[in-house]
Amino acid sequence: MEKILVVEDEAKIRKIIRSYLKEDYEISEAVNGQEGLELFKDSYFDLIILDLMLPEISGEKVCQKIRQISEIPIIMLTAKSSEQNKIEGFNYGADDYLTKPFSPRELLVRTKAILRRSRNQEKAGIIILNDGEYKIYHEEMIVKKDNSDCQLTSTEFKILMVLINNAGQVLSREQLADKVMGLEFSGFDRTIDVHIKNIRKKMQLEKDQYIVTVYGAGYKFTGDI
């Protein structure tokens, strides 16, 4: 059974999360950021559900510390609902973001989706698209179309993987730049657009095949993995 760490200071919310997830996952709980970090370091987990407004150490700092050593999927919970707050959450390293009050059923669905993608990526280190037309070798950083190497650069490959790992979610150009290259927000829109154009060309993708342009917002990955 996969293990989930819930870092949340509100007992009522922890109880709700546990009641909805306990049938499918083994749940561990931490009531503050420091306890969450200690549990994370002492045990193996498959996913973390992390509140941002925590006592002692904020959720943002917890996320940053975890991202220094691990790519474990993280779902952030927060009462902050503005677009800027969400962008900041993703830039701290979150894989998904739910605003309080949230639907426990939606949390369960998102948890299952993230863990399914994570399992798929880890399986033999290969991601398969379109019944084998495309094969993505994560460890080797290679993408093949019909067994021919698409010759993506390291940056192009990383952008593709970020989109795949966040499939269905719109990522802004700023988010992509920060996750892949650690760049500041302003001035890099065109850089990301050029990389996306090169990825599509090298993979011989049709317009909006897998990588969809969401005008005014960014890009998202669609399709079965």
TrEMBL record:
<keyword id="KW-0805">Transcription regulation</keyword>
<dbReference type="GO" id="GO:0000156">
    <property type="term" value="F:phosphorelay response regulator activity"/>
</dbReference>
<dbReference type="Pfam" id="PF00072">
    <property type="entry name" value="Response_reg"/>
</dbReference>
<keyword id="KW-0238">DNA-binding</keyword>
<keyword id="KW-0804">Transcription</keyword>
<feature type="domain" description="Response regulatory">
    <location>
        <begin position="3"/>
        <end position="115"/>
    </location>
</feature>
<dbReference type="InterPro" id="IPR001789">
    <property type="entry name" value="Sig_transdc_resp-reg_receiver"/>
</dbReference>
<comment type="function">
    <text>May play the central regulatory role in sporulation. It may be an element of the effector pathway responsible for the activation of sporulation genes in response to nutritional stress. Spo0A may act in concert with spo0H (a sigma factor) to control the expression of some genes that are critical to the sporulation process.</text>
</comment>
<dbReference type="Pfam" id="PF00486">
    <property type="entry name" value="Trans_reg_C"/>
</dbReference>
<feature type="modified residue" description="4-aspartylphosphate">
    <location>
        <position position="51"/>
    </location>
</feature>
<feature type="domain" description="OmpR/PhoB-type">
    <location>
        <begin position="124"/>
        <end position="223"/>
    </location>
</feature>
<dbReference type="InterPro" id="IPR001867">
    <property type="entry name" value="OmpR/PhoB-type_DNA-bd"/>
</dbReference>
<protein>
    <recommendedName>
        <fullName>Stage 0 sporulation protein A homolog</fullName>
    </recommendedName>
</protein>
<dbReference type="InterPro" id="IPR039420">
    <property type="entry name" value="WalR-like"/>
</dbReference>
<keyword id="KW-0902">Two-component regulatory system</keyword>
<dbReference type="GO" id="GO:0032993">
    <property type="term" value="C:protein-DNA complex"/>
</dbReference>
<dbReference type="GO" id="GO:0005829">
    <property type="term" value="C:cytosol"/>
</dbReference>
<dbReference type="GO" id="GO:0006355">
    <property type="term" value="P:regulation of DNA-templated transcription"/>
</dbReference>
<feature type="DNA-binding region" description="OmpR/PhoB-type">
    <location>
        <begin position="124"/>
        <end position="223"/>
    </location>
</feature>
<dbReference type="InterPro" id="IPR036388">
    <property type="entry name" value="WH-like_DNA-bd_sf"/>
</dbReference>
<dbReference type="InterPro" id="IPR016032">
    <property type="entry name" value="Sig_transdc_resp-reg_C-effctor"/>
</dbReference>
<keyword id="KW-0597">Phosphoprotein</keyword>
<dbReference type="GO" id="GO:0000976">
    <property type="term" value="F:transcription cis-regulatory region binding"/>
</dbReference>
<dbReference type="InterPro" id="IPR011006">
    <property type="entry name" value="CheY-like_superfamily"/>
</dbReference>
